[in-house]
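Q: Give me a protein?
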Amino acid sequence: MESKTVETDGVRMRWEEEGDGDPVVFVHGIPTSPRLWRHVVPLVQGARSMAWEMVGYGASIEEGWERDISMARQADYLATWMREAGLESAFLVGHDLGGGVAQILAVRHPELVRGLVLTNAICYDSWPIPSVKAMRMMGPGVKRMPDAVFRLFYSTFLHRGHDNGDRAKESIAEHWPYYEAAGGAAAMVRQIRALDVNDTLAVADQIPNIDIPARLVWGAADEFQQIGYGYRLAYELGAKIERIEGGKHFVPEDHPEEVATAVNELLEEAG
């Protein structure tokens, strides 16, 4: 995928792009980057696939130091970026925090969203998860962790979310360098302190009013975002949910075929 950047309203935003056709915007979560979608994008057919980087994440961690990087604000950044990139509307694919951003955008800017694919996404009051809450409470101590100690913590966290051990190791190699280059633990603490469950609760009662095609793909063994929330989302969106037995949290990396199939179904449905 080709890496691109644009500066709009004083914010430098980055994304990775591949292909031509209907625009599909992929939004990652924490603690990952646009590289989360590296195995999904090649399987999506006839689309302009654009893996957007949330402000303050991935290669843009330093861009977020003095900015609001809450989920609600990320939805604003995404809307601004889409318009700057010339996208009148797009299909959105969101994982984890990126799924929450996609929900907020679909409620507040419905004209920008043609369809939704959500995979193991935050929603309602499903987040922050206990380990993230603990990191927030221990923020000063975590920030002072030596890189080697924090890397072990980071690696353990990612392994918990994978059912494919080889992909877990690959995932760490893809995403860890961004944290290592931007202050290690301090970078993640900054991201965690920006999280506020009220961002998704504020749009929760509007989820049933999202009138666009949608699909859900969920790892049934996810300890971070339990599948019960996925079923609630599916019901309120009037959407089909693909349950992946044994699948955990990082479905786009462990089970890219299922995610790509959901995206291709939406594109085919749109005709």
